[in-house]
Design brief:
This protein is an alpha+beta fold. The chain has helices spanning 5-15, 59-72, 104-108, 133-137, 162-176, 180-189, 232-235, 241-255, 265-271, 335-342, and strands at 19-26, 29-37, 53-56, 198-199, 237-239, 286-288, 295-302, 305-312, 317-323.
């Protein structure tokens, strides 16, 4: 990394970022973790290796890894009509699903034909409380006040969709008969030693003193100190750079046939392969380049937080950058982009 600690602190001051953590992956292992700043503006609690940030949509990368694990166990099939195994709710049949059905491959690559309703999937409102996935998908909550249905023929267009990952969550719960967070805990968190990862669904879940507050582009604490997105599979993961690096390393190890959770090299390769004609889309991750220069990434952006996971599988290198400030600009245009461009990975 070209940037020195002093340079990072200067960037944090420039962009009004109270705290950040950077984990570097080299030669198939975590080589360095750099922590700077504080968990909450105006306090002295410093960011440490076990400091937990809101990963927002990086949750989708985790969900992709979970789906691949469940396919290896024979519980899911990525190219099967999801309605075959969905029990609590079904994707409504309409003119767009006559010839092609919605599959997990479609949902993971945002090519299902679903379009999230405008202003949907906002942060938790305490007075309203936690939505069930079925109520949410049927449009019975303020978090999504329209029923979810296919708007285009599957595989025709790309539309980034939180609703698609809510369907994956419901499907997971239907086939396992367990809450989503429990499935993730047993299949991913425990075997990968992701000891500082959890799904924050309501304010009572925030018990650890090392959880970061969210801040706006001016470095001020946001109205709800801990903005919560009550959609675990889509955006509910709170974690550390070390834990996210362990998840990234598991994908890299699976590609070499050395998975700890039973993912085969072929399934891992499928996850980071372009889906249909969308070269930038894998299963739960985004792609750039190809072969030895293939870069996989996942970005998180929500109220009070921005973060990024990037990896070069063939080089066995990568990085995880997490911040407790939402700058109002794309990650690559702010402090995360400056740090990314300084990396030698």
């Amino acid at each position: 990394m070209k940037l020195k600690n002093r340079d990072i602190l200067e960037l944090m001051e420039q962009y009004h970022v109270p705290g950040l953590s950077i984990a570097i992956i080299e030669k198939g292992q975590i080589s360095k973790i750099e922590n700077c700043g504080v968990l909450q503006a105006g306090t002295t609690k410093k960011v440490a290796e076990n400091s937990i940030f809101n990963s927002c949509s990086i949750s989708k990368f985790l969900t992709g890894m979970l789906v691949i694990t469940l396919t290896e166990q024979g519980l899911l099939v990525v190219d099967e009509d999801v309605n075959i195994k969905l029990e609590s709710w079904n994707v409504p049949e309409n003119e767009y699903t006559k010839n092609k059905k919605v599959t997990l491959r479609n949902l993971l690559s945002h090519q299902s034909g679903l379009v999230d309703p405008k202003y949907s999937f906002t942060e938790l409102t305490v007075d309203i409380g936690l939505p069930s996935m079925v109520d949410l998908l049927e449009g019975r909550t303020p978090y999504c006040n329209e029923s979810i249905e296919v708007k285009y023929e599957p595989e025709r267009e790309f539309h980034y969709s939180d609703a698609g990952f809510c369907i994956i969550q419901q499907l997971t719960e239907d086939i396992t008969k367990l809450p989503f967070d429990q499935v993730v805990n047993e299949l991913l968190f425990k075997p990968l030693r992701m000891e500082n990862s959890l799904f924050v669904m309501q304010t009572t879940d925030i018990r650890k003193v090392n959880i970061s507050s969210g801040h706006n582009k001016n470095g001020e604490i946001v109205h709800e100190k801990y903005p919560i997105y009550p959609y675990p599979a889509a955006s509910g993961l709170w974690t550390t750079t070390a834990d996210l690096s362990r998840l990234t390393l598991e994908l890299m190890n699976a590609l070499k046939g050395e998975s700890k959770i039973g993912i085969s090299a072929s399934k891992a390769k499928e996850m980071i392969s372009p889906q249909r004609d969308k070269k930038w889309c894998g299963l739960g991750v985004f792609l750039n380049g190809q072969e030895t220069e293939l870069e996989i990434s996942s970005l998180g952006w929500g109220i009070g937080f921005q973060c990024m996971m990037v990896a070069f599988p063939q080089r066995e290198s990568g990085a995880v950058i997490m911040t407790n400030a939402e700058l109002g600009i794309h990650q690559m245009e702010g402090i995360i982009g400056e740090i990314y461009n300084s990396l030698e990975i």
